[in-house]
């Protein structure tokens, strides 16, 4: 993909921003919507003392159908905003934004650990596959970019990869509309059929929204197929990075604090889903204006 360098407000040039890390600072996680909560859920398991600032860009979801350059700009803007809020690490908990904007975010904020979803998922899939045939479910942008294919082939040139876009399944998952199990199974069978014919023994859930329907994917794929969730793997990577840098919280009183922000006007729906998905008694959701995101990069330049 061309043009993935340093970006400023509305695509202008920006000098790289130096970030000073505070070990007590929160981890920043962002996604276009609900799916990134899968990463937060893994943080709660593996990094239970870490504070988290989660941002869902619900006003501009879904990212999948948007142009690559536009999503890249979103990723840089949101990373800039999270830096402005004082995070010590950013996890781009969105495969589409990882494909479009990971390198640009890293270039703009070279002192900040910025993690994406692709490489962690690839490592887990390579460990799991026995048949050298790996399938990927994701948005059209993720599948068309062949980001998973390229990462896999860097390590294992003999591996065959087949990506399948699953827009209908994603449309339901990204809105948390996952109660109609028979319909979800019908869609999952449709999207897994090409992978079954391909002979895939490993399926990468190449969109964090799909974590919400992981049980559906596992049922449809069957016992002979390993379903890989990059959300688990990226948090393990985050743990190693923080530990190596001496920025890992080993204990904390009071318990870890989770702050939730969205850009849209769907706070009630977001809070209801997050409460159920994370298994917590209550989630309070604030709102951040798009102008604040767009202005953060300029402010930090």
Topology summary:
Layout: E1 27-31, H1 37-46, E2 52-56, H2 68-84, E3 89-92, H3 95-108, E4 114-115, H4 118-128, E5 133-138, H5 140-145, H6 147-155, E6 160-165, H7 167-174, H8 181-198, E7 202-205, H9 214-221, E8 226-228, H10 230-244, E9 258-262, H11 267-278, E10 285-287, H12 290-300
Parallel strand pairs: 1-2, 1-3, 2-9, 3-4, 5-6, 5-7, 7-8, 9-10
Helix pairs in contact: 1-10, 2-3, 2-12, 4-6, 4-10, 8-9
Question: How does this structure look, described?
Answer:
This protein is α/β, with parallel strands linked by helices and 301 residues long. The protein folds into 2 domains: 9-115 and 232-300, Rossmann fold (3-Layer(aba) Sandwich), CATH 3.40.50.1860; 118-231, Rossmann fold, CATH 3.40.50. Helix content is 46%, strand content 14%. The strands form 2 sheets. It has a 6-stranded parallel sheet with strand order 4-3-1-2-9-10, with helices on both faces. Strands 6-5-7-8 form a 4-stranded parallel sheet, with helices on both faces. The two termini are 24 Å apart.
């Amino acid at each position: 993909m061309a043009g993935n360098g340093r970006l400023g407000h509305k695509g202008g040039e920006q000098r790289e921003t130096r970030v000073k890390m505070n070990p007590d600072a929160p981890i920043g996680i962002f996604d276009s919507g609900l799916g990134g909560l899968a990463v937060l859920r893994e943080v709660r398991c593996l990094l239970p003392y870490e504070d988290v600032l989660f941002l869902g860009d619900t006003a501009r979801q879904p990212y999948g159908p948007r142009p690559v350059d536009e999503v890249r700009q979103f990723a840089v803007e949101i990373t800039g905003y999270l830096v402005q809020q004082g995070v010590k690490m950013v996890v781009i908990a969105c495969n589409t934004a990882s494909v479009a904007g990971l390198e640009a975010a890293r270039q703009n904020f070279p002192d900040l650990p910025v993690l994406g979803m692709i490489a962690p998922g690839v490592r887990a899939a390579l460990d799991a596959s026995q048949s050298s045939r790996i399938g990927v479910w994701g948005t059209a942008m993720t599948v068309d970019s062949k980001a998973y294919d390229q990462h896999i082939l860097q390590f294992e040139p003999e591996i065959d990869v087949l990506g399948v876009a699953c827009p209908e399944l994603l449309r339901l998952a990204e809105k948390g509309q996952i109660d109609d199990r028979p319909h979800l199974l019908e869609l999952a069978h449709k999207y897994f059929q090409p992978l079954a014919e391909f002979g895939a023994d490993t399926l990468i859930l190449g969109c964090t929204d799909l974590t919400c329907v992981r049980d559906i994917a596992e049922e449809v794929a069957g016992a002979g197929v390993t379903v890989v969730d990059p959300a688990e793997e990226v948090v393990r990577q985050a743990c190693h990075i923080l530990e190596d840098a001496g920025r890992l919280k080993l204990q904390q009183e009071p318990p870890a604090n989770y702050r939730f922000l969205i850009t849209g006007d769907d706070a009630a729906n977001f809070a209801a889903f997050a409460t159920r998905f994370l298994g917590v008694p209550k989630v309070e959701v604030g709102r951040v204006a798009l102008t604040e995101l767009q202005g953060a990069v300029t402010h930090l330049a």
